[in-house]
Write a structure and sequence with these properties.
The chain is mainly α. It is 75% helix and 0% strand. The protein is built from 13 helices and no strands. The radius of gyration is 22 Å and the shape is globular. The termini are far apart.
Amino acid sequence: MTSASRRAYIDWARGIAVLMMIEAHTTDAWTRAIEKRSVAYRDANIIGGFAAPMFLWLAGLAVVLSATRTAERTGSRAPAAAAIVRRGLEIFILAFLFRIQAFIVSAGNDLVTLFRVDILNIMGPSIAAAGVVWALASTPAGRVALFAALATACSMLTPIVRVSPLFDRWPVWVQWYLRPAGDLTVFTLLPWAGFVFAGGAVGALLATVRDERTERRVQAALALAGAALVALGFYTAGRPSIYRVSSFWTSSPTWFAIRLGILTASLSVIYALAARAEQLGVRLRPLERLGQHSLFVYWIHVELVYGYSSWLWRHRLPLWGTAIAYVLFCMLIYRAIGWRDRIVGGWRSGRGVTDAAQTAPA
């Protein structure tokens, strides 16, 4: 498998995360209330719930792979780490720009919603921290160990931080990043930053791969590690909790371990499918493009799903109707990627023509 193919399977994974994200949001926004008590809705909700951890995990994996390539090319860790930190800060700024857009487009929102903590608010600082962690360790083994330790700490400290009185006097907007506060905190740093660090550990491991044989062995090891994490999570979930207060679906390290195990093993499955597809001459270009434009899709689809454009069918569809609408909406989003590429391509071409016209007389 070529390096380009290895990147392709990561795009596949991102594309799958995009499809799960859209499924989660359309199912939540468009399904009528009576259907939300069904087993099918519950199962759809669980599947869609894997989108966020998968995005965060893949973000950690990708930035570590990118930093390693940059360091190998430049011979220095500092520029690579600085690039990751800048990327994290950019995403953090984008989180507030996204909220400003939502505030303007959807009239009636309270001003405080500008500071709502969503996935980009968590992804940005976590990526920046991952850049610092990557720079602190000079060897792949050290990076894997450090990222894994931080991921474990994030999951284990979550139940403690959420009930600790030590944070009661902190500014309320800081508390929103540490523990839930209704609709103002969709995500919190703990445990969600742990997925970025866990992805960083996998990225540091994959960065050592130099040939196809090693890639297969690493993927096999990841599959076994993922299965072990799932087994550990289910085992500990059946044991008495070591925490005074803990909820399996929100703050429990056991659910964190299960999700992380599923993500890790899933990457190996996606890698195997991508390898087989390459042998057969098959390329899932639409899935790759969804993965490559995941931030753009996130940016436009939320307002389309929850905004005025879908008010006619919001909370009014049966579950089967939501499923049909979901498929049609995914097709629309894919077309939007094409429109976006044409607009950006035309703008860049126009700039190139203008620059050439300006420099030609000289």
